[in-house]
Please model this.
Amino acid sequence: MTFLSILCALLIEQLKPLRADNPIYAEIKSLAMRMETWFNAGHPRHGRTGWFLMMGALMVPTALIYWVLIHYNLPLVAFAWNILIVYLTLGFRHYSHYFTSIQLALSAGDEAAARTLLGEWTKQDTVGMEANEIARIAVEKSLITTHRNVFGVFFWFLMPLGPACAVMYRVAEYLSRAWNEPEHMRNEAFGQFAARAFYWIDWIPVRLTAIAFAVVGNFEDAIYAWRNFAHRWQDEAIGIILTAGGGAMGVRLGTPLENAAKVLPVDAATVDSSDSDSESDTLPGEEPSVRALQSTVGLVWRALLLWMLLLLLLSGAVWLG
Model:
């Protein structure tokens, strides 16, 4: 049921992508804002209380509905419920139109259009960016977004609570951003627990995604870059994704500390400047070009097929065993 649920949800999303500004997401964002308003009194424990209440409000009904359907022997309805939850928690096509449009604009030599699209996608100033920089940022954003919107969801959906765990992952990822990254929240203690909680929730998935990139790409370069450079990012998870993904494609991703805010303000992908003083510390690979965008598409799809193949084999083993 797990494999078929994910497969059906992916097929539905390819035919009818769920908009990132859909009403369900809007309600979750509104609830997160209310939690912050109600509980933010300037101490980390208040953020912890708000985080658990937010999770309980969304996970408990999801798990309860699934349990009731299984308990009363309604497998087809439970199957439909699984598909719905995976469809709502996946985001494979939420932002792919930006990536595709940027790729087409750069291929046509229209850097102005590519800069505009990148600015809309990343919410950053793209004035004066050249083609290679646009390509690099688009590749970085795509790899990170794909992990958090697809592969991380896959992993947690495989856990015993299934749909509830998928909801937990996506909500935890959102709260780690919503309670830390807005200007008025960056120095607040309220979001510290949300950021730490997501770090541990994402600890295994992010490494599995990096392994998948390595397996379907240049394995040796991906592992080398991951082992030697990932720890230099202030956000370790982003460092792992970008070094493994870049190594798998043979391109150099990531930026020095002084350019971090310019490149990925949403994801805070930064490198520790103390490790960037010598030429030998430079990340391996070529500068990303327009061709890197196509390589990224291939890498993501191959990684997705690898996940699905492993899931099929696991499902088959469970069914036969």
